[in-house]
Design a protein that fits this description.
The complex is a heterodimer of chains A (about 325) and B (about 500). Chain A has about 325 residues and is mainly α. Chain A is built from 14 helices and 2 strands, in the order αααααααββααααααα. Chain A has a two-stranded antiparallel ribbon with strand order 1-2. The chains are: A mainly alpha (about 325), B alpha/beta (about 500).
Chain lengths: ~325, ~500
């Protein structure tokens, strides 16, 4: 293999290859895949996974994990939609309120993890339970309907051929790319995950960095809640189910390391698109919904194997373990 | 057939084209105590890793009791009776003494379950063979370092042990425990177990060993009978004549006082430490491992925080209070800290060289939060050239660099912040002689630029060779202060011990 190809395979860009491969496979098995309307569909479907994976990227880059995404989504959605459905607040206020609640959940997580120094895995698992439980208590498990039609603009209204929420996702990705690559803060996020102690001894306030990523992820979760409820024009108690798993999968498929310090938003969006395309293609092929879950899991395993191969984690000599 | 012990013939080892060992013959006879002596980077640990099967030689042969062998793993070496006790003891802190001793060879009962009674018995027997009494049910982390070391030795003796390799076993021990360790080593000898004793300390070598092999720069200088030589000859052999000026010290005129430590104590570690550091001088603090050097560095760098009750006393920088709440404040105030633990504290080894160099200077390199990439690139390029960091590109991962070049990256980081005080803790640990001289040259450059340099080291020749003033640190107390030149190296060595 020539050197440039090798370098590309070793870089994060190689996930892109999987994406292209997926698209080709999908178009072989279905005739509608490459139609403009389906491609627009894929992008629209990818928004929820894409935005939550974006927040998760920040968390995972610092070496943490956030399992409260699903809880945070249903928590913010339920409260926001309840007020909106009752007509006590307008659309704008409801959206702001939800964003505020998302930040609040992030602050709560950040407090548990950086001030009380709890492990992120268990702290966010607990706050997931708290938020999801509160949401259920507030809605009593019932679906909230009767939302004003204007609210659906965010999720459904198209501008230049694509829904507003897709443009919003693009904008967030570009912004995050700039933040991670061209700001001191971005460097600090990587440094904290790569070697926390050395980052601290280089004068970085690692606790503030860690705190901030949970707030960012809380905010992103709230956005996902807004997009989901706006698309459905309703809010159910299962609205955030499994979102944390999908977003973690997207981040890791995108080439990030679970121990932190490695990865990026370019990989994450590809990861999110891969997950969306798999599910889209299976829908087009009318694969049984239960079987879809199985295939999804298997494909995540394959993508991970590919990633480990690329990083040289498999087939390495024993003294490198 | 008579036992011949271990014979290694013309062993060579290369890492990525760099030769670290060349043509080394090494022989350990049954029941002898064989010293292995050499400076950092001389190749001692590489040779031991080859004996122990961690590394494979690129040239040469290994024979045990007359049979040619090759170890592809520590497990294989252990099976052949070669056991290593590492300097950083590789024990399990949360398990009991018995579990630690039997680790890797746990006795099972007829149901294939752990036989706890037998495990305790074996452990007691092994400890009895070296005549020590430690409760085998005690958790390891409740023992002293010296006791933990004994546990590690007992574990090495489990099963068929012919040769035991002790890697700098005395570096972390108080004098009393060193004598106890020597007693154990002599007992092993009586049981016809060979001991390879690795150390920097010449007096210990003279006291305990039968023969000594000296390495320098990856080559064997000689193997000598301990009875035939004295410490002075040994010292000459270790240093060698390869480098004329090992300590290229340049003196500058010291300026005003930059830093003042007054009556600083850290509970159990430092007692009433006071000193001043001036602009343009190198203040050397010399002491054994565990004397409290790193604690001084960390106290200065804000690692213990401001409200910490364990830390008392005052620190002033330019007359202002300098008891920092966190390293971030120390960095902002213009202090740079080169940690003794390069890999886990000094560097982001999985990140690129340029990432590491700019890490502490991000604020200086950005405007309105956005990094000035052009300026960053210029600074990085300039520093990589100035410090002669050998690399293909600044985007290269630090983990791919040699120890000496990694250390230069850490130093570059504090050049980038334009630090006014630089604290170097064991700055030449684990780097070769050539790179050492380069680090010393960089110390000269710092001093020339008016930086106050605090050099903390356990290597007496280094402090003697590079410092303008010297403090001797012993068990957390400063026991001597002198201008360099008012004392001989041997005298300083004696004060440190």
């Amino acid at each position: 293999m020539n050197k440039k190809v090798k370098l590309f395979m070793k870089s994060q860009g190689s996930v892109f290859l999987i994406l292209v491969l997926m698209c080709l496979v999908a178009s072989l098995f279905t005739d509608k895949f490459f139609s403009p309307s389906n491609l627009s569909n894929v992008l629209t479907q990818s928004v929820t996974c894409g935005i939550s994976a974006l927040g998760m990227t920040f968390v995972i880059l610092t070496g943490g994990i956030d399992l409260s995404v699903g809880g945070c989504i249903v928590f913010t959605a339920t409260i926001g939609m309840k007020f909106l459905a009752e007509g006590t607040v307008g659309v704008g206020t409801a959206v702001l309120m939800m964003l505020g609640l998302g930040i609040l959940v992030g602050v709560f997580n950040g407090f548990l993890i950086t001030v009380l120094k709890m492990p992120s895995f268990i702290a966010t698992l607990a706050s997931s339970s708290v938020t999801a439980g509160l949401a259920l208590y507030i809605s009593m498990g019932k679906t909230i309907i009767g939302l004003p039609i204007e609210y659906s603009v965010i999720g459904l209204k198209k501008v230049m051929g694509l829904p507003i929420c897709v443009w919003m996702m693009f904008a967030l990705y570009i912004l995050s790319y700039i933040v991670l690559k061209y700001t001191g803060y971005g460097r600090k996020v990587y440094a904290t995950g790569s070697n926390r102690k050395s980052a601290w001894l280089s004068g970085i306030n690692v606790r503030i960095v860690e705190f901030s990523v949970y707030v960012i992820n809380g905010l992103m979760s709230a956005l996902v809640g807004i997009v989901l409820t706006s698309k459905l024009l309703s809010s159910t108690s299962t609205i955030g189910n499994g979102m944390e798993v999908n977003s973690i999968a997207a981040v890791v498929i995108g080439g990030a390391s679970m121990t932190g310090g490695e990865g990026g938003v370019a990989g994450t969006i590809v990861g999110a698109l891969i997950l969306t395309i798999i599910s889209n293609a299976m829908n087009l092929m009318s694969v049984n919904a239960y079987l879809q879950e199985v295939v999804m899991g298997l494909i995540i395993i394959i993508a991970l194997l590919f990633d480990m191969l690329r990083k040289g984690y498999i087939f390495r000599k024993p003294d490198e373990e | 057939m008579e036992k011949q012990g271990l014979i290694m013939k013309s062993i060579g080892k290369q890492f990525n084209g760099v030769t670290v060992l060349e043509g080394v013959d090494f022989e350990v006879r049954p029941g002898e105590i064989h010293g292995l002596l050499g400076e950092n980077g001389a190749g001692k640990s590489t040779l031991m890793k080859i004996v122990n099967g961690v590394l494979q030689p690129t040239a040469g042969e290994i024979h045990i009791d007359g049979e040619k062998t090759a170890f592809d793993s520590p497990h294989a070496a252990s099976g052949a009776g070669i056991r290593m006790v590492y300097q950083e003891l590789d024990l399990f802190a949360h398990l009991t003494v018995a579990e630690n001793i039997c680790q890797g060879n746990i006795p099972k009962n007829s149901l294939r379950l752990v036989n706890w009674t037998r495990m305790r018995e074996i452990s007691r027997e092994l400890l009895a063979t070296i005549d020590v009494d430690i409760d085998v049910d005690e958790r390891l982390d409740r023992l002293s370092i010296a006791q933990q070391q004994i546990v590690a030795i007992a574990r090495a003796l489990n099963g068929n042990c012919k040769i035991i390799l002790l890697d700098e076993p005395t570096s972390a021990l108080p004098k009393k425990d060193v004598e106890n360790l020597f007693k154990i080593v002599r007992q092993l000898k009586e049981k016809n177990i060979s001991v390879v004793f690795i150390s920097h300390k010449l007096d210990e070598m003279m006291e305990i060993t039968d023969r000594i092999t000296i390495l320098n720069n990856g080559r064997k200088v000689a193997t000598v009978d301990t009875a035939d030589i004295n410490e002075d000859i040994l010292a000459e052999m270790v240093v060698g004549r390869t480098i004329k000026n090992k300590y290229p010290k340049i003196r500058y005129k010291a300026g005003e006082t930059l830093l003042k430590m007054e009556h600083v104590s850290l509970k159990g570690r430092l007692h009433d430490v006071s000193f001043e550091l001036k602009k343009g001088e190198v203040l050397g603090i010399v002491g054994l491992l565990g004397a409290g050097k790193t604690e001084i560095a960390k106290a200065l760098f804000g690692v213990y925080g401001k409200g910490n009750k364990r830390l008392t006393g005052n620190i002033y920088m330019n007359g202002k209070d300098a008891r920092f709440a966190a390293p971030a404040q120390a960095v902002k105030a213009g202090i740079g800290y080169i940690s003794e633990d390069r890999g886990s504290e000094g560097l982001q080894v999985e990140q690129a060289i340029d990432f590491n160099i700019s890490l502490a200077a991000l604020r200086k390199m950005s405007r309105l939060g956005l990094l000035n990439l052009k300026r960053e690139r210029e600074t990085n390029t300039r520093l990589i050239e100035k410090l002669k960091i050998k690399c293909e590109t600044p985007r290269q991962k630090v983990s791919s660099l040699s120890g000496g070049n990694q250390q230069k990256v850490v130093i570059a980081k504090w050049f980038a912040t334009q630090a006014r005080i630089v604290v170097l803790d064991e700055p030449t640990r684990g780097i070769d002689i050539g790179a050492k001289v380069e680090v010393y040259n960089l110390i000269n450059e710092m001093v020339e630029a008016g930086i106050g340099v605090l050099l903390l080291s356990s290597e007496v020749p280094e402090v003697f060779g590079m410092a303008d003033r010297i403090l001797v640190l012993k068990d957390g107390k400063i026991t001597g202060e002198m201008e360099n030149g008012s004392i001989t190296e041997a005298e300083l060595q004696r004060q440190v011990m």
